[in-house]
Specification:
Length: 435
C-alpha cells in the first residue's frame, strides 16, 4: 500500500493543513516528521476552524492514528494544551496519538536563547517565532539534547538537565544578561509533563514499519515549505529542520524504498512570513489586496504574510529536489478579482538571466523578476467542485502553471472548507512521469 509524502513547495503557508486533511480520509495513519509548534495548519470543517501546531491534521478524521516522529522537536506544554483543546471540542486523542521516544524536547532555556539571540541580531533578524525551535535543534546536533523518552527515566533526565543548565545558565547570564533557570523548578515542571504524556510515548519507528508491513496506507506530513529547508532553502532565512521530502525518512525511521510517492502543495500566488529574499514580493496595493483576500496572517503567530505573484522558478526547484509527481494548488479563488495576473518565469541580475533558482543569496535578494502576464477571469471560483465549471481563463492559468513548473496538478482548492476542492487525479495512484 502507498506511503505518500506531502510537502510545501514555497515558504510554507501553502495550505497543507487542508490538503493533508483531505488526503487523510483514505489513509490509516498520518505522520508529522519535522519542525515544532512554530507550524500552523488550518482546517475548516463546516462552521468550525481548527488550527493545529504539533498534532497531524489527520486527527480530525475519526479512527485515524497519528504520529509525531523523531524529527520533530516537542514542547510538552504546547502538546498537552493542543491535545486538551481538541478533546474539549470532541476530538478524541488517547489511543490515537503516538509520540516518538527519540523526538527532542524543547526546554525553557531554548525559548530564552531563541528570543535573546534574535534580539541581538538587529537588522540581521531571521524572523523566528521565538518558540525555541532552532536552539532545540542546535542541542540535538551538538549531542546534548534531551529526548522525549528521557522523561520516562527521571534520574537520567535530571542528569542531562543538570549538565545542560551549567552551560545554558552561563550563556544566559554572561552573554544575554538574563535570568538563569532553577534546576529543581524545571525538573518538577517536566516530570509533571511526563505524567501527562507518558501514554503517548512509543518507539514510532517500529510502529510505522509495522503498519507498512500490514499494508496500511500512511501519509507523511511536512511543516513549513521547501524554501525554508535548512539545506535547500533560502539560507540563512530558513527553519532548522529538513522540510523537504528527505526529512520524511530521517524524521520517522521509514526507509526511502518504502515511500511510494511525493506530492506538493502550492499556493496560486506566493507568500512569505519573516525576513529573507522574495523576488516577486508586491509592496503596492495589489500585494495588500492579495493579503486581505487571502487572509494572509500566520496561523501560529498572527503575523502578516508578505505577498507576491507566483514564482515558477521557486516551485520548479521544489519539484526537482523533492521528486514531486503532482501538486495541489490552493487559494485559486484569491485571484478571482484580478484583471491581470503575473507569473514569474525568470530573474535578471546584472545583465544575466536566470531560468532556474539561483543559489546565491545576493542574486535572490537583488534580482528583478521576469513576468509573463495572463488575463484574469474576474468571476468567482469559490466552492467549485468540478474542473469543467472553472472559468476558461482560470483553466488557462492552471495550464501555464503546470507547464512552467513541470509537474501535473492533481487537486485544486477553491475555498477554505473541506468540500471546496476539485480532485483531478488520485494522488495515491500517481506513479508515472510528469506531463
Amino acid at each position: 500500500m502507498p506511503a505518500l509524502v506531502v510537502i510545501g513547495t514555497q515558504w510554507g503557508d501553502e495550505g497543507k493543513g487542508k490538503i493533508v486533511d483531505l488526503l487523510s480520509e483514505r489513509a490509516d495513519g498520518v505522520v508529522r516528521y519535522q519542525g515544532g509548534h512554530n507550524a500552523g495548519h488550518t482546517v475548516v470543517l463546516g462552521q468550525e476552524t481548527f488550527i493545529l501546531h504539533l498534532i497531524p491534521s489527520g486527527i480530525l478524521h475519526p479512527g485515524k492514528r497519528c504520529v509525531i516522529g523523531n524529527g520533530v522537536v516537542v514542547d510538552p506544554a504546547a502538546l498537552i494544551e493542543e491535545a486538551g483543546h481538541l478533546e474539549k471540542r470532541g476530538i478524541p486523542i488517547r489511543g490515537r496519538l503516538h509520540v516518538s521516544s527519540n523526538a527532542h524536547l524543547i526546554m525553557p532555556y531554548h525559548k530564552a536563547i531563541d528570543k535573546e539571540s534574535e534580539r541581538l541580531k538587529g537588522a540581521r533578524r531571521i524572523g523566528t517565532t521565538g518558540r525555541g525551535i532552532g536552539p532545540a535543534y542546535v542541542d540535538k546536533m551538538a549531542r546534548i539534547g534531551i529526548r522525549v523518552g528521557d522523561l520516562l527515566e527521571p534520574d537520567l533526565f535530571r542528569e542531562k538537565l543538570t549538565a545542560n543548565l551549567i552551560e545554558m545558565n552561563f550563556l544566559l547570564e554572561q552573554t544575554y544578561k538574563t535570568e538563569r533557570f532553577d534546576l529543581e523548578k524545571v525538573y518538577r515542571e517536566y516530570m509533571g509533563y511526563a505524567n501527562e504524556i507518558r501514554d503517548y510515548i512509543v518507539d514510532t519507528t517500529v510502529l510505522l514499519n509495522q503498519w507498512i508491513d500490514e499494508g496500511k496506507r500512511i501519509l507523511f506530513e511536512g511543516a513549513q515549505g521547501t524554501h525554508l529547508d535548512v539545506d535547500h532553502g533560502t539560507y540563512p532565512y530558513v527553519t532548522s529542520s529538513s522540510a523537504t521530502a528527505g526529512g520524511a525518512c530521517t524524521g520517522t525511521g521509514v526507509g526511502p524504498t518504502r515511500i511510494s510517492a511525493v506530492v506538493g502543495v502550492v499556493k496560486a500566488y506566493t507568500t512569505r512570513v519573516g525576513s529573507g529574499p522574495f523576488p516577486t514580493e508586491l509592496k503596492d496595493d495589489t500585494g495588500v489586496q492579495l493579503q486581505e483576500r487571502g487572509h494572509e496572517f500566520g496561523a501560529t503567530t498572527g503575523r502578516a504574510r508578505r505577498c507576491g505573484w507566483f514564482d515558477a522558478l521557486l516551485v520548479r526547484y521544489a519539484v526537482r529536489i523533492n521528486g514531486l509527481i503532482g501538486v495541489a494548488v490552493t487559494k485559486l479563488d484569491v485571484l478571482d478579482a484580478c484583471q491581470e495576473i503575473n507569473l514569474c518565469v525568470g530573474y535578471r541580475f546584472r545583465g544575466k538571466t536566470f531560468h532556474d533558482m539561483p543559489s546565491s543569496l545576493t542574486v535572490q535578494e537583488s534580482c528583478e523578476p521576469i513576468y509573463e502576464t495572463v488575463e484574469g477571469w474576474q468571476c468567482s471560483t469559490i466552492g467549485i467542485q468540478r474542473y469543467e465549471q472553472l472559468p476558461v481563463r482560470a483553466k488557462d492559468y492552471l495550464s501555464r502553471l503546470e507547464e512552467r513548473i513541470g509537474c501535473r496538478i492533481f487537486l485544486i482548492s477553491t475555498g477554505t472548507k473541506r468540500e471546496e476542492a476539485i480532485l483531478l487525479d488520485d494522488p495515491y495512484s500517481l506513479q508515472g512521469q510528469n506531463r
